[in-house]
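Working notes for the structural subgroup meeting. M.R. asked for a predicted model of this chain before we commit to crystallization trials. I am recording the input and output together here so anyone reviewing the notebook later can reproduce the run.

Input as submitted:
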Amino acid sequence: MKVTILGSGTCVPRLDRSACALLVETDASKILLDLGPGTMRRLLRCGVAIFDLTHIFVSHFHPDHSAELAPLLFATKYPEPSARKRALHLLGGSGLKHFYQGLQAAYGNWIVLPEDTLAIREIDTLNGETMTFEDVRLTARPVEHRPESLAVRIEDAAGAVMAYSGDSEPCDALVKVARRADLFICEAAMPDGLKVPGHMTPSLAGRIATQAQAKHLVLTHLYPECDSVDIVKQAGRTYKGPVTAAEDLLHFALPMA
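Returned structure, recorded in token form:
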């Protein structure tokens, strides 16, 4: 499994940090986790075309996590004949179909793909779900941010595991999703002492990683306030494993040594 941070930032426009997005690659799957503004350009930097994607998972519908969905669907329609050779699975929490219908109301047929090209699946946001796709098992669990918010755990055929928090308050579901994960990518929006509702800080992310016994913690979804402090050191107060501050285009190969 290979994991790439496509966007480590937020809604704040920055040259060095695109908005939230991750790419998970296995032998048979290329899974995009969130797609805030700038995602498609970051994908190209990784040598991945939008037609290569097999799945898109939207953790919640805030624009910094979902705004590039309409442009991506529009770009998918461009080639004739279509460059997409297999169905794209669009996954998200309760309300995903309504969210897509709202985009369609705004953009019309420009974002409507043939029925055999796009498969939309709403995940039960009350209980979560586990789904199997070719060589990956994906488990989504509800977290505390928005009604549709989900964290996700992905396991490949060799047993490598990555987990992604989306946006959330600390909660038991995050611990379960990150349980013994090789890589836990967790939002730490603001430094310790500047916590805002619906988000975590580095020390809170570290606490979740410790409870989950995650093997490596990556701090992401970083607002500019994080630039002026040592967020790795803050996370280290509550987690004794390796900690990395996310940067755009940072790669991880799982399992890690």
